[in-house]
Design a protein that fits this description.
- With 527 residues, the chain is mostly beta strands.
- It folds into 2 domains: 425 residues, Methylamine Dehydrogenase, Chain H; 91 residues, Immunoglobulins (Immunoglobulin-like).
- The protein has no helices and 44 strands.
- The strands form 9 sheets. Strands 36, 38, 39, 40, 42, 43 and 44 form a 7-stranded antiparallel β-sheet that branches. A 6-stranded antiparallel β-sheet has the order 2-4-23-22-21-20, with no helix packed on it.
- A hairpin with a 6-residue loop joins strand 26 and strand 27.
- The chain is globular.
Length: 527
């Protein structure tokens, strides 16, 4: 594969969370006793507590000029690292940290409109202090969101709102300030998005933070941030009372409208690093389901990454169960209540810094081994994994630190040291890239296209309509195969209703939404 250097700059999102509770000894065990790798997960008692504050717009923060004149791409003599990338069809939105000195770190952004063949600098945010670890996600169409870690001296959650990636006038940055409530050290934020709710309900941000807001000070506890379902620009911070977390990741189950977060957690009693998984309703995050489980281990499980779809939840992490570092997989088919394990890798070399993405019904896991970036895939929701394939073309130059790479359904960005300093590179996966175009008429139809390089197999799909719908509010099916460059049309069938509606189409983990009007069996004004 040919590597392509890209300039990545980022605009990001963030929002806070808050909730305190402790785990019980209550366990959930899967009933399939014949599975030797079943893990009895420990369920947390109670519900998370929530705290809401109003967001503040960061005025005049965006600098449209892409980068200083001496940074035409992200392979300069200065340092570029901790990249992120999100994709919507053939549009890629990337970001990275630009660090001209040890006391200067900025988030830069870049855009590709040709499927990752070329990247154009987009801009950066002028924010005081040292920022790090950008994370971007696609909300659908031309809309993206992002977040990043604030300066250590501030307790902010940043949310970058890219309403139309082709028009920088629609780009904005909002932040929530939690410092007056005792929060500090907001670390490791990761964002996931879904467009099934109100326009301002972007999705979820998972992160690790500390606070004196609780009766007993919480150090490095698991946090979640999401928008208020009723009030635009208000955000909720939520947390559980589990001190000793280090990293976080987030995912959206777009089929079941659930948001998930995962954390590595040091269990002092066991002297092991275990995995926490937090599932929460996206339909109703305040009154709906919210549960946290601990996946116990007898070893260190660190740096988790997570994907979810249709109650399948898959987490990968570094494991030292076999002395050296391998990539372990925890997978669930019931929304994270029960778990089984497999291994992505069990090589004699150390495999570190995993990331994970969902491409159709295929899971792709990236990791670093001996200074090279590899990927492995699973087509059975984590039970088995393919042999690893090397991505980078120059041996031994990939950084192996946490956050060194970020995978999206179409490809991966990574930090590369081939030029003697940290630069950012991109390459594509041989994968399916699903796009959705929603239309109306007699019912709803959607054109599903594969803009990737391999066929997509067994794509489950659904079409749902909100509002006053008397008949045909939901239709499901499966696309058995969709070759590269091929398109198919799926239809809702007969619908009957009246009034405004939101149409949501999910296809193999990819979703698109559009608003319109139902008039009897017709759906009109789709946009």
């Amino acid at each position: 594969m040919k590597g392509k250097a890209i300039l990545l700059g980022i605009v990001l999102i963030a929002a806070g969370l808050a909730t305190a509770n402790v785990f019980s000894s209550e366990t959930n065990t899967k009933t399939t006793a014949e599975s030797s790798n079943v893990i009895p997960a420990i369920m947390a008692k109670g519900e998370p507590h929530n705290l809401k504050v109003e967001g503040k717009v960061m005025e005049d923060a965006f600098v449209r000029a892409a980068v200083p004149a001496n940074i035409p791409v992200a392979n300069t003599e200065d340092t570029e690292y901790h990249p992120t990338i999100a994709v919507s069809g053939s549009t890629f939105f990337g970001g990275y940290v630009y660090a001209p000195s040890i006391i200067e770190q900025y988030i830069y952004m870049t855009v590709s409109t040709d499927g990752g063949k070329t990247f154009e600098p987009a801009g950066y945010w002028t924010i005081e202090g040292v920022t790090d670890y950008p994370s971007f996600a696609s909300w659908g169409g031309n809309t993206f969101y992002g977040t990043f870690m604030p300066d250590p001296n501030t307790a902010y959650t940043y949310l970058m709102e890219i309403q139309d990636i082709t028009d920088t006038a629609t780009w904005g940055l909002v932040y929530w300030d939690w410092s007056s409530y005792g929060w500090h050290d907001m670390m490791a934020p990761r964002i996931a998005c879904h467009n099934s709710q109100n326009p301002w309900e972007f999705g979820v941000i998972a992160f690790v933070a500390s606070t004196t807001y609780t009766e007993e000070e919480l150090i490095n506890g698991p946090h979640m941030f999401f928008a208020d379902p009723d009030t635009e620009n208000s955000g909720w911070i939520s947390w559980w009372g589990y001190p000793g977390c280090e990293h976080a990741d987030a995912a959206m189950d777009k089929t079941k409208n659930m948001m998930y977060a995962t954390y590595d957690y040091y269990n002092e009693t066991q002297a092991t690093w275990n995995i926490l998984v937090w599932g929460r309703s996206f339909d109703d995050p305040l009154e709906g389901d919210s549960y946290l489980v601990e996946i116990p281990t007898s070893y260190y499980a660190k740096s988790p990454a997570i994907v979810a779809d249709n109650d399948h939840v898959v987490v990968v992490a570094q494991s030292d169960e076999h002395i050296n570092q391998d990539i372990v997989c925890f997978y669930s088919s019931d929304g994270g209540l029960t778990w089984e394990t497999s291994y992505v890798t069990t090589a004699t070399q150390d495999d570190v810094a995993p990331d994970i993405t969902l491409s159709g019904n295929k899971i792709i896991c990236t990791f670093v081994r001996d200074g090279n970036l590899y990927y492995s895939s699973s087509e059975d929701w984590g039970a088995t994994w393919s042999e690893p394939v090397q991505i980078n073309e120059q041996d031994g130059t990939v950084s192996s630190e946490y956050g060194t790479s970020c995978a999206c359904p179409a490809g991966v960005v990574w930090t590369d040291m081939r030029n003697g300093n940290a630069d950012v590179y991109f390459d594509s996966f041989p994968s399916a890239v699903i796009t959705i175009e929603v239309g109306g008429g007699f019912g709803v139809k959607a054109t599903i296209s594969n803009e990737g390089t391999v066929a997509a197999e067994n794509l489950d799909w659904s079409i749902s309509l909100s509002g006053t719908v008397f008949m045909g509010s939901e239709k499901t099916g499966t696309i058995s195969s969709l070759a590269p460059g091929e398109s198919v049309t799926i239809k809702s069938g007969l619908v009957l209703g009246i009034g405004k509606t939101t149409v949501t189409v999910n296809v193999g983990g990819t979703s698109a939404s559009a608003s319109g009007f139902i008039l009897g069996p017709f759906v009109v004004g789709i946009k």
